Amino acid sequence: MMNKPIPLSQNPSIVRIPFYEGKVRAGQSRFASAAQDYEMKELDLNELLVTDPPATFIVQVAQDCDSMLDAGILPGSKLVVNRALGPKAKSSNIVIAIVDGEFVVKRLYKRFKIVRLLSENKAKAYPPIEFTEGQELVIWGVVQHVINSFT
To answer: pTM of the full predicted structure?
Structure first.
């Protein structure tokens, strides 16, 4: 379950954020010195996150939803969704679908005539949502990015 989708602006203002070229490692750093100069560019989040402005929306995952933790989608995550990709969604895409009148975020599985929406949380066994022939699956859009806050 998610909150109401928020469209991204058709004419977004450009906010450029400093982007350091040095890579951040999860293990031991390769940086010679934290004070060493690295090339700094500017990064526009619109260019990074939005491939199709009129079809791009942000949705927020409800705080009580943990079915997609293993895909990096946490309670409260913001998802950048491209609605134009919905009809073209492929097996293994993470999608926003409408199931029983509610938005859900799940991994799409399609093989032959089998269509399922799968959760990704090994700690809890969420059953797949299975569609049989004749049932309609509405894919609202494809998730392109996940934004998580740690503060």
So the answer is: 0.79
Q: Where are the domains of the chain?
A: 54-147
Q: Give domain 54-147's CATH superfamily.
A: Umud Fragment, subunit A (2.10.109.10)
Spatial contact of 109 and 94, defined as CB atoms under 8 Å apart: no
Structure tokens at 29: 């750093």
19: which strand partners? Answer: 41
CA distance 10 to 71: 29
Active-site amino acid positions = 67, 106
Sheet containing strand 102-111, edge to edge, reads 6-7, 56-60, 78-82, 138-147, 94-99, 102-111, 114-118, 129-131
CB-based contact 60:3 (threshold 8 Å): yes
Residue type, 88: K
* Residue count of the chain: 151
> For 86-130, what is each residue's pLDDT tens digit?
999 999 999 999 988 889 999 999 998 889 999 999 999 899 999
- Nearest Cα neighbor of 42 from 22, 23, 12, 21 is 21
